[in-house]
Amino acid sequence: MTELTAGLGPSSAGVLDTLVVGAGISGLTAALRLTQRDRSVLVLEHQERVGGCITTASGEGFLWEEGPNSFAPTPELLELAVEVGLRDELVFADGNLPRYVYWRGELLPVPMTPGAFWRSRLLSEGGKLRLLLGAFGFTPPAMGPELAARGGEETIREFFSRHLGSEAVERLVSPFVSGVYAGDIDALSASAAFRRMANMEAQGGGLVGGAMRVLLARRRDRAKAATKPNPQIPKPKRGQLGSFRTGIQALPEAVAAKLGDRVKLRWRVEKIHRTPYGTYAVDVATPEGLQLIEARSLLLTVPTQIVADLLWNLAPEASQALQGIYYPPVACVIVAYPTDAYRRPLDGFGNLIPRSAGLKTLGTIWASTLFPGRAPEGWAHTINFIGGATYPDIAQMTPDAIAQQVDADLRQILLKPDAPEPKVLAVRLWRRAIPQYEIGHQRRLDTVAAALERLPGLHLYSNYIGGVSVGDCIKGGAAEAARIDQYLAGGSH
Ligand SMILES: Cc1cc2nc3c(=O)[nH]c(=O)nc-3n(C[C@H](O)[C@H](O)[C@H](O)COP(=O)(O)OP(=O)(O)OC[C@H]3O[C@@H](n4cnc5c(N)ncnc54)[C@H](O)[C@@H]3O)c2cc1C
Question: What confidence tens digit (pLDDT) does each residue in 255-278 have?
Answer without folding.
Answer: 999 999 999 999 999 999 999 999
